[in-house]
Design a protein that fits this description.
The complex is a heteropentamer of chains A (about 500), B (about 325), C (about 475), D (about 120) and E (about 500). Chain B is built from 13 helices and no strands. Chain B is mainly α. The chains are: A mainly alpha (about 500), B mainly alpha (about 325), C mainly alpha (about 475), D mainly alpha (about 120), E mainly alpha (about 500).
């Protein structure tokens, strides 16, 4: 086994351990550790990705001395490594971009705790990405949930606490259902390791035994993860949580946390149940319908909103709807589109959140649209970045949003029954996206406006500006040279099977 | 043409229109084109402002539970659907359960080669008499590592939420002032009975907890349960003697470092074991004799570490809940 | 070469705010030079074009960004590059009264490049790409004055355009999936074997895509952005909202209909009927709204709405003749409408008057402007001897030739619209020249014609209007060749 | 309805408990009761798991007298899962309780909707 | 050959020069210039008429749309009428326009209309014809608008609207004709090769009807007659004369060209279109007379009279019988001269007295005897009393109507014509009677001789004489006409 194969394990361990370390470090050191860890994990994931692209095969890694059905395992393929790399990039940029606001929003003595949370979140995300064991997944889902909750409430204003409570309640419902589903699944198959469960499930399907429990278990797990990733009817906690937490938290929450659950769902679909079997259930139809509803209603709520952060948050609901629509199509192409959209949405949404903070900063801290008038002139970088993000969300070519839209539409065309609905909703949702994002973009450029707010130049916020630039570049890379990425996703999904 | 109708009325009749058209008096332009200039589109900025403010106000009103009938209706609806959903879920689960393999049967999917190996070779491979302890701390140690971090992250969030820090200038948090007098209510200054009982119960409890921890690999018990027992002992002590006594040996710093060292040890030890396992290297940790107290490799130290963490955490939770600090 | 042509204006535009121009005239020379140079390059390219496709970048799959010069692109690029230098010249003078010049010229010049991108796009995806880009670079122009009205207008413009593009996008997907390629090939690229029994869905998608692109071409009911966008400075309204942007919409529809879906597939279906009815309705609707409108530029904008649907009417006839008619009107209308818009702009620039009823007696004060306006008005009406007649003739002939009873109705719509055009255009002329018996001209004593920078474009356009009207044979022949696919 | 409902009565109880907890979590306005609901839910799952691991007539999986035969002991895995689960549930409860305390200190209420209304009034 | 262009281009260019010229020139200079231009144009027209039956293709609008000119008998007839009326009205205007503003503009457009009308007469195909037909509308619009009062502007726009309605309706037809014919060159007997029974034929019948309606607008045919009574009173008198005598005849010319030279009489004969056309013409005849009879304002009354009289001509065309056709053409001439002089007389009256209503004009005959005598003579002509021009034309019309193959209209037609003639007497003669016999209570003290200037009376007199000549020596014209009418029918 090559040394590189240790990297997934190292990534998880480093980030876990750094969490522990940060608990005794002062704030600055904690920050440094945090950055270094994220960067190191990113580099490792990158190397791993290159390695995997070279070998073209996934590998499993024993966590301990015991082989597959007895010991824990993690597994790395192209998709996992790519996701890990991507998550690190986004997390690093989000942290850097929101760093300067952290001081305003969080008690100073608790800054190092914040970095603990981030580290643990990273580790749990990595574990979710790499794990090959359902129960491990459950444990890390909990870490993910709790640290996400911590990220929400670390800025202690009433709204965030309330949002955190709501978030926790929904999450716990979700975990409960997930765990119950998992237990049933375990009862049926006697395994907790994904590959073994898959084999058993295939056998069960063949023999025709335990059909109802099987379906129910899959459904429970799906619903659990859907609730956790804020699919449409379960999104009530989301706007407050994203809208009022610190900016880095919001960026990370929207672009990574929910994506972690979704990625887990993909793994379950492919590695636990089996893609074909999953597609033969009616669950995908449900997902499809809720995805479509989410696309519409998320956007509608966003249109009604007059708080920029909450608007972006609602937009997340819509975007998650896109992803589930892709699942619901039940084809390989739909899945590829969804995975690509995970990337694209993560890149865009964090960009939007971080740009939005730049805009509110020059508007007296208010996030109401009326105060944001002309903010694009006061903070040029943030204005440009917000515009770019919006365009990507609307699906203008050159940006990543366009490609995901393209992939979704192409996938939709191949599905007879769902084609028209998907296409039309895609169109309508684009229109709605255009409405609320462009409304904002025009608003921030509306007048040179109220001079009572100060202008911010590049010098005042170098880091922020550079981060925004990176985000834009990331977006454009995703949008322009999407072919290799799509190929990678396809390969990765093929490795899942 | 009879002129009995008054002029105005006549002007409305069809006949009038017809004849005026016939005579060429009806004009396609008159009064239709360019007669009225359109108003320039002007929006009063103040109006706009007020509009948006009103929008906010409406939003507020929408969320005003007490006075919003729609919301109340929605609430009812929500409750009804929730109950229905729960009933449905229950029915679904019951149906599912009725299809599950029978409880207590020896032959069912759960009892497969996995469980068999744990039981048959667990003693040999892990050195733990307690198969469950061997399983969770060796076979499936990664889960347990995660689990301890769940606890850790939960403590961190509780700290974030409840710890009342001094601000930059060193002034105590304003909430501390409210909390402290509040805390007095719970603090029986000189409750002799309690103190007496505690003074001989606490050591027993703590010793019992230590026993549980140390015997984790040999019998029922382990780090978590033992730690919880120790935590309970500490809490009893705190209740009997107050913070001033406990602060002598247990402060935040103590807690921090204990947690740090325990978890670091856990992490590093497990990392070593994982790394060696994955790379098929030989682990230098001896298994020892099954059944002896110093046996079963890492399980004992790990149990101790977990126990420490859990004990401290339990105490920390209590302290936090009670007054936001140690 | 093509890339160079597309990028040159974009770069020139970006340079405007960056370069430290000491004097305004330097900036003018720089911009005009860049634009003229680019136009020369375009014409050079058109005259020496090769058949080959230039591939710029791969997208996903077999989708790519590539460029090619074919008949349609020759027409559109030729048109745009012909008008742009004059419009720029005009803009210099007009913008003396407006603020934020640099921003304006930045986007104004960039739009040139983007429009050329649309013209030279070799496949549907490239066109879609530049189409979206066009929306984006023109929004700042609409928003330019930053008044509330302008902001609302630009917002609407964005919503409509992006929303439309979303539906056009679905059409694009259909072509990608059911077509053999996305390249533009006269006669369409749909693969009938792949379609199977999904004809009706495809037709539905065609109608959606038509309406999507039709948003830019201001097809009813998606037309209300266009009159509102009239708040932009006049060079923008004239060049973009009478030529570049809206014609891009029409151009895109032509591409979609003739080069992607293919007329064979569409002709005689309910889809054709639907879009034709919509277009016919728009023709009449635009005119009647123009009649009621008293703001000059808005009136002209409504007129544009109607005239754009002339083009679309030609396009949806789905015959080569129809295409030829559409192209003819595409070019001729551009010249006529830009001329009338520039007159309106000149009036606003010289007098600050915006409403028709304020124009009384100005005809004698600004004889050149109003003379030219009259000519363009007559041309728009379709008076024989001017350009409008020829294009309408071609359209009507195509309609008659198509043997489609609905198209006959379309001819009637054309004529009704011509009648209404006459009324709303000539009523301006009449006001200007016949202010009434006892008209007091003391209020407008100091009004006079604008300077050469404004008048030169006007005169040039007028010459073209008359030239096209009297001796259109070579250019119309060229259009027929294009429509027949010989280029 | 399958054949094993009565045999699986333990699981059935677990399911019913789970649903009770679930309902509590959804419907109770009082946060503390919600947390209780949460705990009921979790416990139900542990009960379910414990039932799963049980095999009639066998003892707990602690090697006694060196007998390492499969027939002697019940399935150890569910027990392990329950252990892990309990820790998770404790953590989560602690977190929820701390949130509740904070909210109560601030708003003197345990009703989330009421708190939300207060928040709106604060205008933050 | 290019001589044909001269009478067209010269006045148009002269008019343009006048318009473009910035300053308002001295009045004498202006009138002299205009007068000379008018006369030269007249001469050019006459010289161009020698080129009869030659055609000149000027250039192509598009590949298949030639602009070509050709002179035939119809051209001769109409262009002569145009020249005479325009020169007369022009002379009259030199005096009359004194009390109007912006004379330069008036003369400029007047000259342009002249040129356009010539072009219309010489047009060799339908496209050319249509081109100048539109130009006619546009260039004559300023004449109607000229006074600049609100009524005038409204009237002008109304004129524009109606005319364009008509023009576009006929353009609609032209589109379809172009598609169904090989050429649109005017050819006696028509160029349409389609049988009226075939499906295209049936559709083309509809087209024919649309075109009749369309061109009928210019000729004041019901239902699109309403512009006439508004436009005529609003325009200055000489302009109304030109309008009424010539410009409305352009509609007649158009119908002749379209029906007889493009469709061919055989195509329409006996079809529903002919019936409809006849009905419309007769309705207009009757209705125009009735309205005129009820109208108090003199110029408006004359305008209604024009409506009615033009439909005489249209009736003649619609019958499609050689005699009726001849009658129609004769009536073109007769009506042209008569109505021209009538409007000039009305103008003279307005100019001298400022009165516009008939009942205000008691005793006018005593004040302006020469003018009123002319009025009486031409009125009789319009009524159709021998030996004036009107009699001959109406005679031919009636004969043709009776001989034509038009079913019930054979009887209705002449009867309506007769009734209308009576009505004509009813609305024209009261002025004469009141004018010469003001009644017992007329105050002769206020009476003063107010004969207008010579430059006004001479044109009136000239046209009156011409109208009488047409009546006295109709043979010259009929002989000329019958020859080619036989080729048409």
């Amino acid at each position: 086994m090559d040394f590189v194969c240790n990297f997934p394990f190292f990534s998880i361990l480093i980030s876990l351990f750094s969490g522990t370390i940060c608990s005794v470090l002062p704030e600055k050191a904690a920050k440094a550790v945090n950055r270094i860890v994220i960067a190191a994990v990113g580099v490792m994931s990158g190397i791993l990705l290159l390695y995997l692209l070279g070998t073209g095969e996934s590998f499993v890694y024993w966590m301990g001395h015991f082989p597959a059905p007895w010991g824990n395992e993690i597994r790395a393929g192209i998709l996992e490594a790519g996701m890990a790399l991507f998550f690190c990039i986004i997390m690093y940029l989000s942290m850097a971009g929101g760093a300067h606001k952290l001081f305003d929003e969080v008690e100073e003595s608790k800054h190092n705790l914040y970095y603990i949370l981030i580290n643990l979140l990273l580790s749990s995300l990595l574990a979710l990405v790499y794990t090959n064991d359902m129960f491990t997944a459950y444990v890390f889902v909990e870490i993910n949930t709790i640290s996400a909750c911590g990220l929400i409430m670390i800025r202690q204003v009433g709204r965030t606490i309330e949002a955190a409570v709501r978030y926790m309640i929904m999450s716990l419902l979700g975990s409960g259902l997930f765990l119950f589903g998992l237990c049933i699944m375990y009862d049926l198959t006697g395994h907790l390791l994904m590959s073994n469960i898959k084999e058993s499930v295939a056998l069960l399907i063949q023999s025709g035994e335990y059909q109802i429990p099987l379906i129910v278990s899959v459904a429970l797990m799906c619903i659990g993860l859907c609730i956790k990733s804020a699919l449409f009817p379960f999104h009530a906690w989301l706007p407050d949580a994203y809208g009022y937490s610190t900016v880095s938290s919001a960026a990370i929450l929207s672009s990574l946390v929910s994506k972690g659950y979704i990625f887990l769902l993909i793994k379950i679909i492919y590695r636990v149940i089996g893609f074909e079997i999953f597609n033969n259930t009616r669950i995908i139809d449900v997902l499809f319908v809720f995805g479509l509803l989410g696309m519409i209603f998320g956007s509608l709520s966003a249109i009604k909103e007059n708080d920029i952060r909450r608007m972006i948050a609602y937009s997340s609901v819509a975007q998650i709807g896109y992803i589930y629509m892709g699942f619901g199509m039940g084809t390989q192409a739909g899945m590829v589109a969804s995975v690509f959209h995970i990337l694209s949405h993560a890149a865009t949404k964090s960009l939007l959140f971080i740009a939005a903070i730049g805009l509110t900063e020059v508007s007296g801290g208010s996030r109401k649209f009326i105060d944001l008038t002309g903010a694009g002139y006061r903070n040029k970088w943030a204005g440009v970045a917000f515009t770019a993000g919006s365009l990507s969300m609307v699906g203008v070519p050159l940006f990543s949003g366009f490609i995901s839209k393209l992939l979704f539409a192409q996938a939709a065309v191949q599905v007879e029954g769902k084609m028209l609905a998907a296409l039309i909703v895609l169109g309508i949702s684009t229109v709605l996206n255009a409405i609320y994002f462009m409304k904002t973009v025009i608003r921030i450029y509306a007048t040179t406006g109220d001079t009572s707010y100060p202008c911010i130049t590049f010098k005042d916020m170098k880091v922020h500006a550079i981060v925004l630039l990176f985000f834009i570049v990331l977006n454009i890379i995703l949008g322009v040279s999407s072919q290799p990425i799509v190929n990678m996703i396809e390969q990765g999904l093929a490795m899942f099977a | 043409m009879s002129k009995r109708k008054p002029a105005e009325e006549y002007h409305k009749t069809f006949a009038f229109h017809f004849f005026s058209w016939l005579q060429g008096e009806k004009d396609p332009y008159l009064g239709n084109v360019e007669m009225k200039p359109q108003e320039e589109y002007v929006i009063d900025p103040e109006m706009q402002l007020r509009h948006e403010k009103e929008h906010d106000a409406i939003l507020d009103k929408v969320y005003d539970m007490a006075h919003n009938r729609e919301l109340r209706l929605f609430h009812r609806l929500y409750q009804a659907t929730s109950i229905l959903f729960c009933l449905f879920l229950m029915a679904l689960l019951l149906v599912t359960i009725s299809h599950l393999p029978a409880t207590g049967a020896a032959v069912k999917p759960v009892n497969n080669e996995v469980a068999a190996r744990y039981i048959e070779s667990g003693l040999e491979e892990t050195g733990a008499v307690n198969i469950v302890a061997g399983m969770i701390l060796d076979y499936r140690a990664f889960d347990t590592l995660g689990e301890s971090h769940v606890l850790f992250v939960a403590t961190i969030t509780v700290l974030i939420m409840l710890r009342l820090d001094k601000n930059k200038k060193g002034e105590p948090n304003p909430l501390t002032r409210d909390m402290n007098p509040n805390d007095r209510i719970y603090e029986p200054k000189n409750d002799a009975i309690l103190q007496l009982v505690a003074s001989f119960l606490v050591p027993i409890i703590i010793i019992f907890g230590i026993y549980i921890i140390l015997n984790g690999h040999l019998g029922p018990g382990g780090g978590f349960s033992g730690g919880a027992v120790i935590g309970a002992g500490l809490i009893l002590y705190l209740n009997a003697f107050g913070f001033s006594k406990t602060e002598r040996f247990f402060t935040e710093k103590t807690y921090k470092w204990i947690c740090f060292f325990s978890l670091s040890f856990y992490c590093l030890a497990k990392s070593y074991s994982f790394y060696t396992g994955a790379n098929h290297l030989h682990s230098i940790i001896p298994k020892g004799t099954p059944g002896a107290i110093l046996s079963s490799g890492l399980i004992l130290p790990l149990n101790i570490a977990v126990g420490l963490v859990v004990a401290c955490t339990m105490y920390a939770f209590y302290a936090m809940f009670r007054k936001g600090g140690f | 070469m093509i890339i160079c042509i597309i990028l040159l204006p974009i770069i020139a535009g970006i340079l405007v705010p960056l370069l430290p121009f000491r004097k305004r005239s330097h900036k003018e020379i720089f911009l005009e030079g860049a634009v003229i140079l680019n136009s020369i390059l375009v014409w050079y390219l058109l005259l020496h074009h090769s058949e080959s496709t230039f591939l710029l970048a791969h997208f996903t799959g077999d989708l790519n960004i590539s460029f090619r010069v074919d008949g349609m692109s020759m027409v559109f690029a030729g048109l745009v590059s012909g008008l742009w230098p004059f419009a720029t010249l005009y803009a210099f003078e007009y913008m003396t009264k407006e603020k934020h010049e640099n921003t304006f010229f930045l986007f104004y010049t960039m739009t040139y490049g983007v429009t050329l991108g649309i013209a030279f796009a070799a496949n549907l995806l490239t066109m879609y790409f530049f189409y979206e880009l066009l929306t984006l670079v023109t929004v700042p122009l609409v928003m330019h004055t930053l008044t509330r009205e302008a902001v609302l207008a630009s917002r609407k413009y964005l919503y409509y355009s992006l929303g439309g593009a979303a539906f056009a996008f679905i059409g694009l997907i259909m072509v990608i999936v059911y077509g053999s390629t996305t390249d533009f090939i006269l006669g369409g690229v749909l693969d009938l074997a792949k379609i199977g029994d999904r004809t009706n869905i495809l037709l539905l998608i065609y109608v959606m895509a038509f309406m999507g692109f039709g948003v830019k071409a201001a097809v009813c009911p998606f037309n209300s952005w266009l009159p509102q966008a009239g708040v932009a400075p006049t060079p923008v309204t004239a060049l973009l909202h009478a030529v570049a942007v809206v014609k891009s919409g029409a151009f895109a529809i032509i591409r979609l209909t003739y080069y992607s879906f293919g007329t064979e597939f569409l002709r005689g279906t309910w889809a054709q009927t639907t879009v034709m009815v919509v277009v016919m309705f728009t023709i009449v609707y635009g005119c009647s709204r123009a009649l009621k409108e008293t703001h000059i530029k808005r009136r002209l904008a409504y007129s544009t709405i109607s005239n754009l649907s002339y083009i679309l009417f030609g396009a949806v006839l789905m015959t080569p003749l129809g295409l030829a008619g559409a192209i003819t009107h595409l070019v001729f209308h551009a010249v006529m409408k830009i001329s009338s818009f520039f007159c309106a702009g000149a009036i606003m620039h010289q007098t600050d008057k915006r409403y028709v009823h304020e124009l009384n007696g100005l005809g004698y004060k600004m004889p050149c402007v109003f003379g030219i306006f009259t000519v363009s008005a007559l041309a728009l009406m379709g008076v024989p001897g001017l350009a409008g007649f020829i294009s309408k003739w071609n359209l009507a002939q195509a309609a008659v030739d198509s043997n489609n009873p609905l198209a006959y109705g379309g001819v009637a719509c054309l004529l009704i619209s011509a009648l209404l055009t006459a009324i709303y255009m000539l009523s301006i002329v009449v006001r200007a020249f016949f202010p009434g018996r006892d008209f007091d001209d003391s209020a407008i004593r100091d009004v006079h014609d604008p300077n050469w920078k404004m008048l030169l474009p006007l005169f040039v356009f007028t010459v073209f209007i008359i030239l096209f009207g009297i001796h259109s044979q070579p250019i119309v022949d060229f259009f027929y060749d294009v429509a027949a696919g010989s280029y | 309805m399958g054949p094993n409902l009565w045999i699986n009565y333990g699981e059935a109880v677990a399911a019913i408990l789970f649903c009770i907890g679930f309902t509590n979590l959804l419907l109770q306005t009082n946060l503390i009761k919600k947390i209780i609901g949460l705990n009921i839910m979790d416990s139900a799952i542990y009960l379910f798991l414990a039932e799963k691991g049980y095999i009639a007539g066998r003892t707990a999986p602690i090697v006694t007298d060196g007998i390492t035969s499969v027939e002697a002991y019940i399935n150890p895995i569910p027990s392990g899962l329950v252990l892990t689960g309990i820790v998770v549930s404790v953590s989560v409860s602690a977190l929820m309780l701390s949130l509740t305390i904070r909210l109560y200190i601030r708003y003197h209420s345990l009703d989330l909707d009421e708190i939300a209304a207060q928040l709106k009034k604060e205008g933050r | 050959m290019y001589l044909i262009l001269l009478p067209i281009l010269f006045p148009i260019l002269a008019g343009l020069c006048l318009l473009v010229y910035r300053k308002e020139p001295e009045r004498k200079l202006l009138t002299a210039f205009t007068g000379i231009c008018l006369v030269i144009t007249g001469a050019l027209v006459v010289s161009a008429l020698t080129l009869a039956r030659q055609s000149l293709t000027l250039f192509y609008l598009t590949r298949t749309l030639p602009i070509c000119f050709r002179i035939d008998e119809i051209s001769v007839l109409f262009s002569l009428l145009t020249v005479i009326v325009f020169i007369c009205a022009g002379l009259f205007a030199f005096v009359y326009m004194k009390h109007e503003q912006k004379e330069k503009r008036y003369y400029g457009f007047y000259l342009m209309v002249f040129g356009v009308l010539n072009a219309l007469c010489f047009a060799g195909n339908l496209i050319t014809f249509y081109l100048f037909f539109e130009l006619l509308t546009l260039s004559s619009l300023p004449l109607v608008l000229h006074t600049g009062t609100k009524e005038a502007i409204m009237a002008g726009l109304k004129y524009l609207f109606y005319s364009l309605c008509g023009a576009y309706a006929s353009l609609f037809g032209i589109y379809f004709l172009y598609h169904n014919c090989d050429t649109l060159t005017f050819t006696a007997g028509g160029v349409l090769q389609v049988s009226p029974a075939s499906p295209e034929g049936r559709f083309l019948l509809l087209i024919a009807f649309v075109m009749i309606l369309g061109f009928g607008v210019k000729a004041g045919m019901f239902p699109m007659h309403a512009w006439l009574p508004t436009a005529h009173p609003a325009a200055p008198a000489p302009a109304s004369a030109a309008l009424s005598a010539v410009i409305v005849k352009a509609g007649v010319l158009a119908l002749i060209r379209v029906i007889y030279y493009i469709f061919g009489a055989d195509f329409l004969r006996g079809s529903w279109v002919q019936t409809a056309w006849l009905t419309l013409a007769l309705v207009t005849v009757f209705m125009g007379s009735m309205l005129a009879y009820r109208e108090p304002v003199l110029k408006k009354r004359l305008a209604y009279s024009t409506v009615s009289q033009l439909s005489y001509i249209l009736f003649g065309l619609a019958v499609m019988h050689p005699d009726a056709f001849t009658g129609g053409l004769l009536h073109v001439l007769a009506h042209g001269f008569i109505k021209g002089s009538l409007f000039l007389i009305a103008g003279a009256i307005i100019y001298t007295t400022g009165k516009t209503k008939v009942h205000e004009l008691r005793g006018i005959g005593k004040e302006m005897p020469l003018t009123m005598w002319c009025y009486t003579i031409v009125s009789l002509g319009l009524i159709g009393i021998p030996p004036t021009g009107g009699f001959v034309s109406k005679w031919y019309l009636a004969i043709g109507g009776l001989a034509g193959d038009i079913g019930i209209f054979r009887y209705i037609g002449p009867i309506v014509l007769l009734i209308s003639a009576l009505l004509t007497a009813g609305y024209l003669l009261p002025l004469t009677i009141q004018g010469f016999f003001p009644g017992a209570d007329y105050d002769y003290n206020t009476l003063q001789k107010r004969e207008p200037a010579r430059l006004m009376t001479i044109p009136i007199l000239f046209m009156t004489i011409l109208s009488v000549i047409v009546g006295l020596f109709p043979n010259i014209i009929t002989d000329y006409l019958t020859e080619f009418v036989s080729t048409l029918l």
